[in-house]
Design brief:
By secondary structure, this protein is an alpha+beta fold. The chain is 39% helix and 14% strand. It contains 37 helices and 25 strands. It has a five-stranded mixed beta sheet, with helices on both faces. A four-stranded antiparallel beta sheet has the order 7-8-4-9. Helix 2 (48-55) crosses helix 4. It starts with a helix and ends in an 8-residue tail after the last strand. Keywords: Endonuclease, Hydrolase, Metal-binding, Nuclease, Nucleotidyltransferase, RNA-directed DNA polymerase, Transferase, Zinc, Zinc-finger. Residues 1-44, 234-286 are annotated as: Disordered. One of its GO terms (molecular function) is RNA-directed DNA polymerase activity. It is an enzyme of class 2 (transferase).
């Protein structure tokens, strides 16, 4: 090809990208007209000079500032390459002519590293882009709201421009969610999200609704705008005459603008005519006109929206099942036909049938209403909180449970809703329900609303109803009969029936809502925990999530659950390789063991004060809520959680504060409005209250605690057993030194009857009702107790052994053998208690150990205080220059032309001399280099460096 032809084609390409010809004698004006016959575009790669001439018209210029221009530079190149094909190599050759300053130097030093445009783009963003550009962009999208006077088309265009810059891009549904949510409330209510499937449909529907609001937003026309036209106005039209086409200002008003000024005299006359004529039609009439023109997205009909469409939208075919299930299905249909629950139907709807197996081996007839529930109105009536019901069963001496027979089928279904519940069965035909079926999204709320009218708050705290499960608990038998008659009368008045096979009357313990309710409190149901016991070792993340979900249901019975499951939850982290080892198997086995020996939790008595014990460790925080009863201190609930990575960097005092704040929030339903006691082994709350001018999270915690009424009690860490165990990670069995057994000396229990009344009463109870007292056992005419793991946790070995229960006449001998004899060595309170707890148990044993050790004359005469020496207190005194140095970071400040944004300030506390260093980024390597240059290389290494423990100094 000749040079002349190249030059012509270069000019042709140059003209193709010119939007407006620029005047000048050196270049001819080239006008491009679309050719009449379409022809296939011919793509080719221009030479470097041609590429430069093309890119020169893209208005490219960048000097190296770290701001939004760096991203805009890449966007302009991307848009330009959509017009004409340019190779990466040609662009790299031309880029230096459009760069200046730091950007030009950077490009020349690194251009040999890039082979593709993608590599250059990544390096460009890393060097000149904002570090958190995508985060800032997402935040801007979430905060973008349509202005009150902003047209919806402009708002949607702006949102699309922001969403287009996301990397990686969001799903279309998520983009539409944000665009729809941030519209004006009146548009968001009128345009339903389900009717929008792309931005075009959103813009169309929103524009239509905006036009409906347009006449209401226009001010009334005044008669004094053009007074000279009042005499030339046309006569008023009679009421019975046909309205003129140009009767309103809206006919000449520019579309999309509000309060636009008329531009022609005719429009002005029309305005005067309208002002002098009869009042215009109401807004509702205009809306009715637009509604008549509206088209349904479902049936493509006019005059209604898709949500009001009466055409059948859900029609499912019959699902094939085995002959056995088909037989059960036909039996259920015959039974429901006979009972009037279903009837033949001529509905246009049809839902698939699902047979659900019951625990007794029979099948429950259900329908798959998932598609129906998607288009149904949701009922927001609340269901009772199961924990709140269980916590109120304090007076559970006599318990009865009632189960309603075919609960939902006892609720009549509205006639206009029956056809929606239709279903088809081969050889049987099409039927629909006349009673409320299982599976509808509003069925639980509807049924609970009925039960709340029958068994409402006036029956608390003796009768409660959770859907079809009713429980009655009273302290005396006489009261129980009275309340049982009241509940049965209420049920009978509502024409409801109960299932006698599932009812239990006047029991000492019952199964309710997956737990066992008894006089002593609440414990787990072995039948419900059996699936956990038989759960196989998880093979993938899905099975592991299922196992953790089932186990977390009983988290109130398992102390330090989060620390036990930490090896398991570690596998759920993103991009974590699946590696199942001995640690994970041990965690699964530990959870199963805890459920088999779960303690009996007491029901709270809100007339008694609560005691909250908290503790924190480097891996988690733990808490236990207790109350003091006649029989001693009882546990209400356990709670624990692992610390997040940022929380593990807190100081010890801050972690202890976090434990208290989190525990109070966790048990807020118990503590709010009551005075309670907080027991901790650290004076964190006192430190927080005495802190001057707290800021950040400390100020937030201090404000949150002001609304509670509590008393702080400090307990030594050695005596803070349960919360300490809840907060620490699981480390297996703990070895205890000097485990000298004292069983041989006291096992010789006399054959005569004990004088301990408590011992005799408990012995008779366990012997007569062994199933009720599952933690007690009578063997060889002796009473044994299985100590639950949450009581002492990791300070006692062999917790799975049965402990011999000692009557009061043998306890002093046991204490003497564990502490006073030469082989015991007069150990302290903790170790004496540990030795006894290995083999024995009696109520308030720890208190008896404390009393015995404190009364020991040998210990009081010879033992000295074992406390550690006091540590450094107060401020360190600087005795020489540059021995104690303080450092901190100021910023981010407004960015300088050189890119500096942070200021490192270093002060010598002896001379008060200050050194400063500007930084582009506050990172550890940068700060270390600054310390070496400013301090270490000039003054030597300081003895102490004081910082705020920020991550930059780690």
């Amino acid at each position: 090809m000749s040079d002349a032809s190249d030059e012509e084609e270069s000019e042709e390409l140059e003209g193709a990208v010119d939007e407006e010809p620029k005047p000048g004698p050196s270049k001819p004006v080239i006008r491009i007209h679309p050719p009449t016959p379409p022809r296939t575009p011919r793509a080719r790669t221009p030479y470097a000079m041609d590429a430069y001439n093309i890119m020169r018209k893209w208005n490219l210029n960048f000097s190296g500032a770290r701001d939004g221009e760096a991203e805009a530079f890449l966007i302009r190149i991307k848009q330009g390459r959509q017009l004409i094909l340019l190779e990466d190599e040609e662009i790299f050759k031309c880029l230096p002519f459009f760069l200046s300053g730091t950007a030009a130097h950077w490009f020349r030093l690194n251009k040999h590293l890039w082979r593709t445009w993608g590599q250059f783009e990544a390096a460009w963003r890393s060097r000149f882009g904002f570090p958190n550009f995508q985060f800032t962009l997402r935040d801007k999208i979430m905060r973008r709201r349509q202005g009150e006077e902003e047209p919806v088309v402009d708002y949607i265009t702006c949102m699309q421009a922001l969403l287009e810059r996301l990397d990686p891009p969001w799903q279309l549904s998520e983009q539409l969610n944000y665009a729809h949510r941030n519209m004006l409330p009146r548009l968001r209510i009128a345009v339903r999200r389900k009717e929008v499937y792309d931005f075009r449909s959103l813009e169309t529907l929103a524009s239509q609704v905006e036009e409906c609001y347009e006449p209401d937003r226009q001010p009334n026309q005044t008669r004094s705008i053009f007074p000279e036209l009042a005499y030339r106005a046309t006569p008023r039209q009679p009421k019975h005459s046909k309205p003129m086409a140009a009767a309103g200002i809206s006919a000449t008003k520019p579309k999309g603008k509000r309060n636009a000024t008329t531009e022609s005299k005719k429009a002005s006359v029309n305005a005067i005519d309208k002002a002098n004529s009869d009042p215009k039609p109401s807004t509702s009439a205009a809306n009715n006109t637009r509604m008549a023109e509206m088209r349904c997205w479902n049936c493509d009909g006019k005059g209604h929206r898709s949500r009001d469409c009466t055409q059948a939208r859900i029609l499912h075919c019959y699902r094939c099942v085995s002959p056995k299930i088909q037989k059960a299905m036909r039996e259920e249909i015959d039974k429901m036909l006979k009972g009037g629950i279903i009837e033949p139907s001529f509905s246009e709807w049809s839902n698939p049938v699902v047979m659900v197996k019951k625990p007794n081996g029979k099948y429950r007839f259900c329908l798959d209403f998932r598609k129906v529930n998607e288009v149904s109105k949701k009922d927001a009536y609340p269901l009772p909180n199961m924990s709140a019901i269980l916590d109120k069963l304090r007076a559970a001496q006599y318990i009865s449970t009632l189960d309603l027979s075919q609960a939902y089928f006892q609720i009549p279904l509205a006639k206009d809703s029956r056809e929606i519940t239709a279903f088809s069965v081969p050889d049987k035909g099409l039927y629909h329900f006349t009673r409320m079926p299982y599976g509808l999204t509003g069925a639980p709320a509807t049924f609970q609303r009925l039960l709340d009218k029958l068994i409402g708050p006036e029956m608390e705290p003796f009768a409660f109803a959770y859907l079809d499960d009713i429980i009655i608990a009273t302290p005396t038998f006489e009261e129980h009969i009275v309340w049982l008659k009241k509940v049965l009368a209420k049920i009978s008045s509502a024409d409801l029936t109960i299932n006698p096979e599932k009812c239990e009357f006047c029991k000492s313990y019952v199964k309710y809502l997956g737990f066992i309710v008894q006089k002593e409190g609440l414990t787990v149901d072995p039948d419900k925990t059996l699936p956990i016991m038989e759960f196989p070792i998880p093979k993938n993340i899905k099975q592991l999530r299922r196992f953790l979900g089932i186990a977390s249901w009983y988290r109130r019975f398992i102390p330090h659950l989060t620390t036990i499951t930490e090896p398991l939850t570690r596998l759920l982290k993103k991009n974590k390789r699946w590696e199942w080892g001995e640690e994970q198997s041990s965690a699964v086995q530990t959870i199963k063991e805890h459920l088999t020996t779960a303690p009996v939790l007491a029901c709270p008595d809100f007339e008694r004060p609560f005691v909250l014990q908290t503790d924190a460790s480097s891996v988690g925080v733990g808490a236990v809520l207790t109350q003091n009863f006649e029989e001693g201190e009882r546990v209400i609930a356990f709670a624990s959680r692992a610390l997040a990575d940022p929380e593990r960097k807190y100081s010890v005092t801050e972690q202890e504060c976090l434990a208290v704040v989190w525990a109070i929030k966790k048990f807020r339903p118990y503590l709010e409005g009551y005075k309670f006691t907080v027991i901790t082994d650290h004076s964190s709350l006192r430190w927080l209250h005495n802190l001057r001018n707290p800021t950040g999270r400390l100020a937030r915690w201090a404000l949150e605690l002001l609304e509670y009424d509590y008393e702080i009690i400090h307990r030594k860490g050695a005596l803070h057993h349960v919360p300490d165990a809840l907060s620490r990670s699981y480390e297996g069995e703990v070895e205890i030194n000097a485990t000298v057994s004292v069983a041989a000396e006291v096992l010789d229990i006399p054959d005569t009857e004990s004088t301990d009344e408590w011992y005799k009463r408990r012995f008779e109870q366990v012997a007569s009702e062994p199933d009720r007292y599952n933690q007690w056992r009578v063997m060889d005419e002796r009473l044994y107790f299985l100590r639950p793991k949450p009581v002492i946790s990791d300070i006692v070995e062999d917790l799975d052994r049965w402990k011999l229960v000692l009557p009061s006449e043998l306890r002093k001998e046991a204490l003497r053998e564990a502490h006073d004899v030469p082989q015991s060595g007069h150990l302290g309170i903790e170790k004496t208690y540990q030795r006894l707890a290995v083999s024995y148990y009696w109520p308030r044993m720890f208190r008896d150990v404390v009393s015995h050790v404190k009364k020991c004359g040998t210990c009081q005469l010879t033992k000295v205080e074992q406390a550690n020496p006091a540590g450094l207190m107060g401020r360190r005194i600087a005795e020489a220059p540059w021995t104690i140095v303080a450092a901190d970071i100021m910023g981010p400040l407004p960015r300088s032309k050189s890119g500096f944004q942070y200021l490192l300030v270093i002060q010598d506390l002896f001379t008060k001399w200050i050194e400063c260093k500007t930084l582009r980024s506050a990172t550890g390597p940068k700060i270390r280099q600054a310390l070496e240059d400013l301090i270490i290389s000039r003054w030597g290494t300081p003895k102490f460096l004081l910082t705020d423990n920020g991550t930059e100094f780690v």
